[in-house]
Amino acid sequence: MLSGKTARFSLGLRKGFSQGFTLVELVLTLVVASVMVLGITGIIELASRGYVDTVDRERVQSQAQFALEKMMRELRHSVPNSFDTRDNGRCLKFIPISDAGFYARVNDQFQFILAKQHDFNGPLANDWRLIVNPTRYEDVKNKSVSVAGLEKEGVDPNVPYSGHFTLNSSNVIGDSVAQRVYLFSHNNEVEYCLVTSSAAANTLGRLTRSQAGSTHTLAEDVAASESEFEYLPSSLNRVGMINLTLTLEQNGERSVYQQAVAVSNVP
Known about the structure:
Structural class: alpha+beta
Oligomer: single chain
Pfam families: N_methyl
Helix content: 25-40%
Keywords: Membrane, Transmembrane, Transmembrane helix
Organism: Vibrio agarilyticus
Protein name: Prepilin-type N-terminal cleavage/methylation domain-containing protein
């Protein structure tokens, strides 16, 4: 009887051991689990990298779009033909319009009215200057006349927007077919530059905007050697054009943004 019970107990032990895992099975399970974990980790890492790349790409695109739109808007509201480039197209400068209007030469007087200042009697700003029919950047610098402190004449309180500003006609150089006049301030001159910290060709830099002694960065990661500002003066068969080329680099990927801006040249 005792031997029979012992035999049955031994069989039970063998049966219990047969339901567990052998060393080989444990090793195979660990290997398979490790492969699965590595695969899942790789997928997560790839997805994360793709997300980061997408965010960086959108940031670069937003920078370029903002910079180009700002430049286009300012260029189209600048004094005609007041554009100039330097450093082989690395910098572009121009003079914004402070106000504009129309004029008439009456005897020895140069009388003009303004769009923004139509309800303003003066005096005009001390740093404002007047120009008629500028044909190049140097004209704005050398052929303009000061209107500092000028006040309106002939104002009728019963007539809205009446009156005009007056200068000595001989002081104003040039004439315009459209009789347009532009007022500006040298202190408001704007300059965009492609700036790098090194002369190396592959060095990334910044796009900066300077005005009135203040400089701000509009875009980073700019491949300055592949970016350029080009000004094409007006001719008989086309208007003045400014070609903007902005190349940005992110994670070894370069994006080129180009924009042609038609600028006013018929003052």
